[in-house]
Specification:
Number of domains: 3
CATH class of the largest domain: Alpha Beta
Strand order of the largest sheet: 4-3-9-10
Structural class: alpha/beta
Strand content: 5-15%
Radius of gyration: 26 Å
CATH architecture of the largest domain: 3-Layer(aba) Sandwich
Distance between the termini: 59 Å
Shape: flat
CATH superfamily of the largest domain: HUPs
Largest sheet: 4 strands, parallel
Number of helices: 16
Bound molecules: adenosine monophosphate, zinc ion
CATH topology of the largest domain: Rossmann fold
């Protein structure tokens, strides 16, 4: 089955023709969120990118099994087996059980992705639900001689492994440089080599999330869950493994090592990495604290934001960049996306109002071909958007009576929009009346504030009472004025 799709493979550092191992079936594994706090917009970019990929593969006729995990245990703060457990730390802070933290932020994650109209994966396995599979895999790696136990903790022996395999196959880094540049961190007195990483970590007396294992009570290291769960649901060899670019150097490098040390197979044929959402050029991240939450973006409730933007505007903004390019957040760029998205949706709503003619001044076929070609070229959504605006121009020209379109071409236009805007991009029309009301009320509240400052109480009262008669209640407090609908 050749659909003409080419994708960039991090493993080979080039674009390749996509040839699934077992077409029309495609197995795709994407590293999901660590659910110890709200997902920020950067995380969303990665999941929106893979949603686009999932949707396009499906559109192209593949039967995709899309597995996206939930990391709900075993993630320490540092990438090298050091620091506190992220869940335990948060649980202490919020005075909740670690599993309450997991539940709370998993629900939040799902809510946010639903707002962005992304499709759910086929399977969403959790690390805590697959402790047995992880233990089995660690046992196999030990018996193959690539891991060792030290005082209740099990480490992967990178030096031993790299005698037979290429540990840095994914990023092509030089092992000598890596060794020279790696600080000794967690478990340094137990590790045989500086690059060794934990597969299983011994529980401390205060550790809350702990499980019994052949090495005593403990919890799995972060990397083993993805190797164990991808093998379980997609097999030892599958088609696509994805995640954000920040995961390639450590998490995915270690995943490949674990899988090869267990089954002697490189797990994924294609490794795909999405680029980062940045703020003023710096990667948005939970740890750096420069990330804003989708909620804040929708409401405009953040110092970096001039106003709120709707979920579909934000999604459109993301699709306007290729998934392998960085995307820098700015109010101006989002403003432009808002206008662009409105223009697109407005044209779509005009399609039903167009009158058709015998002759057509326009041909939709080439646009459709260009859109398919662009998506087949490593999912090039910005090129598709440029083509869609060609279609918008056609619609507006016919609507303004400056051109004609035939019934057959109009049908093609409708199919183009349905396929690319709704099915592949996963955009949808949205009711923006609340957002608009928000901006109008912000302005009215500002006018009332000025009136009060000028001691023009007649005007300020008129505003308050006028809104009240429309069912909008203003509430003044030290922080300012808020409103709610009665
Ligand atoms: P985490 O919850 O930190 O494990 O991250 C979940 C996913 O979001 C991973 O695939 C990360 O690579 C990705 N990610 C984290 N920060 C960003 C960012 N600023 N832009 C795009 N993706 C990101
Ligand atoms: Zn992973």
């Amino acid at each position: 089955m050749d659909t003409g799709l080419q994708l960039y493979n991090t493993l080979t550092r080039k674009k390749e023709i996509f040839e699934p191992l077992n077409a029309p079936h495609v197995g795709m594994y994407v590293c999901g969120p660590t659910v110890y706090s709200d997902v920020h917009l950067g995380n969303c970019r990665t999941f929106i990118s893979f949603d686009l990929i999932f949707r396009y593969l499906t559109y192209s006729g593949y039967k995709v099994r899309y597995v996206r995990n939930i990391t709900d245990a075993g993630h320490l703060e540092g990438d090298r087996d050091e620091g506190d457990d992220k869940f335990a730390k948060r649980a202490k802070l919020e005075q909740l059980e670690p599993m309450e933290i997991v539940q709370k932020y998993t629900l939040g994650f799902h809510d946010v992705l639903r707002m962005f109209n992304t499709l759910p994966p086929s399977i969403e396995p959790t690390a805590t639900g697959h402790i047995i599979e992880q233990i089995e895999m660690i046992k196999e790696i030990i018996s193959n001689g690539y891991a060792y136990e030290a005082n209740g903790t099990v480490y992967f022996d990178v030096e031993k492994y790299s005698k037979e395999y290429n540990y840095t196959i994914l990023t092509n880094r030089n092992m000598e440089d890596m060794l020279a540049n790696t600080r000794e961190l967690g478990g340094q007195d137990e590790k045989r080599g500086r690059l060794d990483f934990a597969l299983w970590i011994k529980a401390k007396p205060e550790t809350l999330m702990r499980w019994a294992s052949p090495w005593g009570e403990g919890f799995p290291g972060w990397h083993i869950e993805c190797s164990a769960m991808s093998a379980k649901y997609l097999g030892e060899e599958f088609d696509i493994h994805g995640g954000g670019m920040d995961l390639a150097a450590t998490h995915h490098t270690n995943e490949i090592a674990q899988s090869e040390a267990c089954s002697h197979k490189q797990p994924a044929k294609y490794w795909m990495h999405t680029n980062m959402l940045t703020v003023n050029g710096t990667r948005m991240s939970k740890t750096l604290g420069n990330g804003f939450l989708p909620e804040e973006l929708f409401k405009g409730d953040h110092v970096l934001l001039e106003k709120g933007f709707s979920p579909m505007t934000v999604k459109f903004f993301m699709l306007q960049a290729h998934y392998r390019s960085t995307l820098d957040f700015s109010n101006e760029a989002l403003d432009a996306s808002e206008k662009g998205f409105k223009r697109l949706m407005n044209a779509i709503s005009l399609m039903d109002k167009l009158s058709v003619s015998e002759n057509s001044d326009f041909e939709v076929g080439p646009i459709m071909d260009n859109c398919v070609k662009a998506m087949n070229d490593d999912f090039n959504s910005p090129v598709v958007i440029a083509e869609l605006f060609e279609a918008v121009r056609m619609i507006n020209t016919v609507y303004d009576g400056k051109g004609t379109i035939s019934a057959a071409e109009l049908d093609k236009l409708k199919k183009l929009m349905k396929d690319f805007v709704f099915d592949i991009f996963g955009l949808k029309a949205e009711d923006t009346s609340n957002l608009e009301l928000n901006s109008v009320l912000d302005m009215v509240i500002e006018l009332r504030k000025t009136a009060k400052e000028n001691k023009d109480y007649a005007t300020s009262d008129k505003i308050r009472l006028g809104l009240q008669s429309m069912g909008i209640q203003l509430k003044d407090s030290k922080e300012g004025t808020t409103w709610n609908k009665a």
